[in-house]
Design brief:
Layout lengths: L2 H22 L5 H17 L1 H7 L2 H4 L14 H13 L14 H14 L3 H9 L3 H40 L9 H25 L3 H29 L19 H9 L2 H12 L9 H8 L3 H12 L3 H18 L8 H7 L5 H12 L3 H13 L1
Helix pairs in contact: 1-2, 1-3, 1-10, 2-5, 3-10, 5-8, 7-8, 8-9, 9-10, 11-14, 13-14, 15-16
């Protein structure tokens, strides 16, 4: 048994342990954790095929042939359900959601004649050239699965983009609303399936022996590494076990008449005056709902006002004020002994990384470069 097989077996064991932990855990977002547990369990069971194939287990247990094939059609639906459950408090599992598993059921139905065949018939596919027929069928099933997974990844990416835009409309800080975990899983999926496509392309070109000898081990190791990463990140990243602390996003668009009424009342002037006088942006986790309540607007009204009056979303609108506050404080001689980071925190920025990124986005230079430019101006 070589090292690659040991890696795959270790991944299978870890995957099962993590899956059952998530399925039985009562911490955080229980619904999302259970779905992720099912996804990891599907992964872990499926990669057992690579071990059975490498160790010739099918010769002794032919009834295990193709039993893992239907599970690959559950990856996309489970990932979609996990993503939507994690970012939406009100995601409901209606009966229509089960339609996502029709491909898996169809796969079972397609292979059912083979499943009900005797052991002697199944052994023929393993011990003689008839096995190539099985390989060809499995390849076609894999192509269908790739198309299905590609569609799900497109849907999930659209979901994440839409959710990110909704966050920018309601929050001034993204520290507690982290989509990096979901983006990481998308990248892992895309990486694995890119390799699968590459191996299929090799088979089509006639290099099926390379795929048969090395392909199963390569895919098995990659999926095992995915399980390692998900397992590690799942244990050290709180967002896998704790649902996002987000409020409900806007349920409807503000009407044109409401926007017009807002401007008729001189609300844009009132908003700008409030920002200068009260400096609400100094609160690092300020939200659209909080600011709207302070001024006396509705969430939708304030959102439309900011968007129409400045062309910016709430996130950019607030952080622009924070950048200007930092610039003022850096220019204040009484705070020359303050560190840049201390001034950033006083100005409402929640972290060093977000501060540097946003400051450079608005000014085109780093905070240190800005402070140095002030020093040069003073010396001149």
């Amino acid at each position: 048994m070589n090292l690659l097989i040991y890696i795959i077996i270790t991944g299978i064991i870890q995957g099962h342990i993590l899956a059952f932990y998530l399925l039985l855990s009562n911490k955080g977002n229980k619904k999302a954790n259970k779905i992720l547990g099912l996804l990891i369990l599907s992964f872990s069971i499926t990669i057992s095929h690579f071990v059975f194939y490498a160790l010739s287990t099918y010769n002794n247990y032919p009834h295990l042939l193709l039993i893992f094939e239907p599970l690959i059609f559950t990856f996309g639906p489970l990932f979609l359900f996990y993503e939507r459950t994690l970012i939406s408090k009100n995601y409901i599992f209606s009966k229509t959601k089960f339609f996502h598993f029709i491909p898996a059921i169809a796969c079972i139905a397609f292979y059912s004649p083979f499943y009900f065949s005797g052991a002697n018939v199944k052994l023929l596919f393993v011990t003689n050239n008839s096995y190539q027929i099985l390989i060809d069928i499995s390849r076609n099933v894999e192509i269908i699965h790739l198309i299905q997974m590609f569609i799900y990844l497109i849907i999930i990416n659209k979901d994440l983009k839409k959710y990110h835009n909704q966050i920018l409309k309601s929050y001034s800080s993204l520290e507690k609303i982290n989509l990096n975990w979901l983006k990481l899983i998308v990248i892992l999926f895309m990486s694995v399936y890119a390799v699968v496509v590459f191996l299929l392309f090799f088979e089509i070109l006639g290099f099926w022996e390379f795929s048969a000898i090395y392909g199963t081990k390569i895919i098995g190791v990659l999926v095992s590494l995915c399980v390692y990463i998900i397992g590690y990140r799942g244990l050290v990243q709180p967002e896998i076990f704790v649902s996002f602390e987000n409020e409900e996003t806007e349920s409807k668009q503000t009407s044109k008449s409401e926007v017009a009424k807002t401007f008729d009342n001189g609300s844009m002037t009132a908003l700008l005056d409030f920002m200068l006088d009260k400096k609400p942006y100094l609160k690092e986790d300020l939200t659209l709902a909080e600011l709207a309540k302070q001024i006396g607007f509705s969430r939708n009204q304030l959102s439309a006002l900011i968007n129409s009056g400045t062309g910016e979303n709430f996130y950019m609108f607030i952080n622009k004020y924070r950048v200007e506050e930092v610039k003022r404080q850096l220019a204040n001689s009484e705070k020359s002994h303050y560190t840049i980071l201390a001034i950033a925190f006083e100005s409402g920025f929640p972290s060093k990384s977000s501060f540097h990124n946003i400051f450079k986005k608005f000014t085109g230079i780093t905070p240190m470069e800005f402070r140095n430019s002030l020093t040069i101006q003073e010396s001149n």
